[in-house]
Amino acid sequence: IDRLDPQPPRQRFEPSNRSSRVPWHVVQPASSCQLARNLCTKYRLERTSDVTDAVTASTCATAQTPTMLAQRVHADGLKLEEIPIPTPGPGQVLIEVQASSVNPVDYKIYEGRAGGQRPFPWQPGFDISGVVSAVGEGCDRLSVGDAVWADNAGELGAAAEFVAVDSSRVGLKPPSLSHIEAATLPLVALTSLQTL
Question: How far is 151 from 58, CA to CA, in rounded Å?
């Protein structure tokens, strides 16, 4: 694969200090620029100079705050942006997203047919599978490095590299499931349980 980015790869925020990282979108890009192109193609995102500039911007010398890539909904559509990594608040955990899924309610919210009116910009996505990267004050049942799954129905935001989630909505991922399999279950399993 040709290197599309003339700059060296930027240092990403790695709070868990794990030696290998499974990318949240499952495919390892050649560079951050390639990641943006892959996601824009896959999700038919609008490719603007802002996206390209944000993704390929030099980091360590200029960025004081660790950043991540996230899909955000604006009045004119869905865009891939580089934004600060959230900090977990009291009772929250920061999850490094390994996989997320799309449910019917996701596109209904995107189309404005469910979930009420959300102020722009907002991040879509309910279901998450990933690894705990940081733990907020008062959360003692989960630890950094735990493989987890979550339904972030109240806040959304699963379409990002990291998401802060209330620990009451997070559970340990069954070891028999991959992250991709685990990300398909939280909302549909809850719906099935409520139907019983």
Answer: 34
